[in-house]
Amino acid sequence: MIYGKIRKELARILHELAKQKESQITEGSLSIDHVHMCIEIPPKYAVASIIGFLKGKSAIAIARMQGKDRNYTGAHFWARGYAVSTVGFDEEIIKKYIREQSAQDDNFQQRELI
Fold first, then answer.
1. CA distances (Å), origin 42, targets 46, 73, 97
2. What's the pLDDT band for 47 if we cut at 50, 70, 90?
3. Which domains does the chain have, with CATH numbers?
């Protein structure tokens, strides 16, 4: 019942929270009992800290949407755990990047010597 009421608002909340941590939700799906997200997180942040931030702050926002002024002891919106997997770049893209960086480095060194 709560899902239908907060679905659109929850997506907006999660996107705003991700931005606060210099992260971006690039893909997402809200289901009745779980959320799937693909998030770009800068390397300076630990994945656990970002997920904890998103879950904690969104739970507070949801409680406020339900008319609660503060969190109550024992009240939980999200499950305790989460699953995480990294998404890598295509091998050819990485090889091309490395080749181009090597060429740029060579050009830079040549310019410095001249």
1. 9, 33, 19
2. very high
3. 2-87 (3.30.70.1290)
User: In 1-114, at which residue ranges do the beta strands (DSSP E only) sit?
Assistant: 24-30, 35-40
Contact 22, 42 (CB under 8 A): yes
Residues 111, 114: Cα–Cα separation, whole Å? 5
SS3 call for 31 = coil
Burial 48-63 (b: 16+ CB within 10 A, else e): eebbebbbebbbebbb
Distance of alpha carbon 99 from alpha carbon 53, whole angstroms: 38
Which residue out of 3, 45, 72, 97 is catalytically annotated? Answer: 97
- The whole-angstrom separation of Cα 51 and Cα 79 is 12
Query: Is residue 53's pLDDT more than 90?
Result: yes
Q: Environment class of residue 21 by beta-carbon count within 10 Å: exposed (0-12), middle (13-18) or buried (19+)?
A: middle
Is 72 marked active-site? no
Look at the pTM and tell me if it is higher than 0.85: no
